[in-house]
Amino acid sequence: MAIPQKRCLFCEKPVNVKPLNGGSVYLFRSCYCTGDGEYRIGASVYDQFNRMDLGDKRDSFYLISAYIREQTDRGEEVELLAGNTAVILESPLIPRTVEAKMDKLLSFLHRNAQGPGDEVQLDPMHASFNLTYSPNLQEFIYILEQLKTEKLINRVGATLSLTEQGWEAAERLYEQEQRPGKLCYISMTEDSELLGPMKESVFPRLRDKGYEPLAPDQPAGEPGAARDMRREIGEADLLIADVTVPKPHLYFEAGYAEGLGIEVIYTVRQDAVWEQTFGIMQTEPLVWETADELADKLVVKLASLERKAAKAR
How confident is the model over 90-111, as pLDDT tens digits? Predict the structure, then answer.
């Protein structure tokens, strides 16, 4: 019986597919999404994706391709079945910044090389931008040049290798992956209209940096259980106190964290700066106008804290 050929929706490459479960599932191999791996997709899900409008395809297919590429490169099984595709697009694995995308390539080279200087061939180069969750080749080339400028990789055409410095950076990323995620306690007014934008813009960037945000409206572990603020702060690695809408408990929580030696970052929206008194704080707050701007400033601040900690070791 002839093996049917289908186009991978996410990388556009036509490949032979193996029908499973009586044809209700397709097994894809050897497309640009899989490398040496494979993924399964339900026949109904394939048809559903195929019927999507072009705008939705453009916004989501490159991310799904990259997710499949990363997971299969890690040796994980990937199944796209009804009900789980939205989870992929919301996965914390998806990088939100150029820096996080650079880290993805360092990790890929680390998994596929024996050490610094060991060459990894991208085949083909023009379809390898899914390694960094990039939407196109242009951004991928930019990331390659940035890594080369920072002396983290060597590149000759489609052949890449990690420098000594790049290998060390990739080793640190690997060690971070093996550690449980760090907890970031978010101290702000629970009913504030700011919480929604914070979750949408700031929380994903914190996750990119390895922190799991604990929101003020997050339910306790047991139904009906009272939250134990002191325990939660004591288990945190970082506390972000936004005092745009000032409440006494915000300053108490921040002071309690400082007393435990936990790093505290104060933030405040621009239009509320003059309403607050910051004399009690040891550091100047991060002043922001939009949640996106706050996310950018927090990434810079966290990078500064990481460099400071590295020098202290």
Answer: 777 888 788 889 999 999 999 9
The residues spanned by each domain of the chain are 5-89, 98-177, 181-312
Residue 303: the pLDDT is: 84
**Residue length, the chain?**
313
b/e string for 4-35 if b means 16 or more Cβ within 10 A? eebebbbbeeebebeeeeeeebbebbebbbbb
Partners of 286 in the β-ladder: 267
Q: Omega of the bond prior to 95 within 30 degrees of 0, cis?
A: no
Report the alpha-carbon distance of residue 243 to residue 285 in Å, rounded.
9
Q: In CATH, what class is 181-312? A: alpha beta
Q: What is the DSSP string of 280-291?
A: T-SSPPEEESSH
**For the domain 98-177, what is the CATH code?**
1.10.10.10
CA 244, 247, 250: angle at the middle one, nearest 5? 85
